[in-house]
Request: fold
Amino acid sequence: MKNTDKDDIATIVRRAVMESLAVNRARQTAPEEPLEIFTSPEANALKEEILRVGKKLWERQYVDGNGGNISVRVSPHYVLCTPTLCSKGDLCMEDLSLVDLDNYQICGDRPQTSEILLHLEIYKAVPAAKAVIHCHPPYATAHAVAGVVPQGNLIPEQEVFIGPVALAPYETPGTRAFAKTVLPYVKDHNTILLANHGIVCWADTATHAEWYVEVVDTYCKTVMIASQLRPKLNEIPPDKIVDLLAIKKKLGLPDPRLKSGADAAEAITAGAAVSQEKASPVKLPANYEIDELVSRLMSEVLGFLYRAE
Ligand SMILES: [Zn+2]
Reply:
């Protein structure tokens, strides 16, 4: 075989390698198409879940008037959310919109909720957060108004699913300053009281975030009633709290008491980061790596040709 033939084969092999890398890179970096996401069967299922959750919040009187809002992360960069000025009991599919993490409304006719900044801060701070609910359940909001965090270690469900409740300071609703009030707490707490306002919960699904609303409001109510029966309430013994924290750790829920619990939240975060990493653009190999690959493929091609002769 002439050297010029070998050069031709090397050129073909190199072109094949480079084209394959380009296709791979294009696949990995293809921008998400927002309209496709917004109208996909997955997004429609999430929209239906938002409608169901909205109805539950309204029926349980956790939202009043047009109060409260729900959002769900539908892809790494986009979030479905409820509109402003709409009762959560009357939501329909067409009311929902798609916003990106920079707070631009991309799809949907109705203006997004004015509290979307709060939701977006949580999604950016906690990759494990896939759904956020803000609402005004009366007993939890009563604690937020009084500036009183309910006593802990009283009921197992509270300890496992929520744990110590954080209290974020007051800021004017709808502002960026308000959205940032939760940041010191949001990694270690899935439920935060918002002073003189209401609560916010995040979870892996909208359904679970609504569960946390139910758990915390019922807890606040029970603690208020129990305190009227007897000012000093009986706490679960510390060794039994350890058992509950072990369950919590297994569920991967955040809790500031767990050294490893905080790690657990980070583990979820890391998990999400890993899956995001998978979706991140593939790194192109260095030139010397391409040269090595071309030369390896060349010797295989030539070996095959010589055998064929
Ligand atoms: Zn509110």
Q: What stands out?
A: The CA atoms of residues 146 and 196 lie 8 Å apart. The pocket of zinc ion is lined by residues 67, 134, 136, 173, 197-198 (CB under 6 Å).
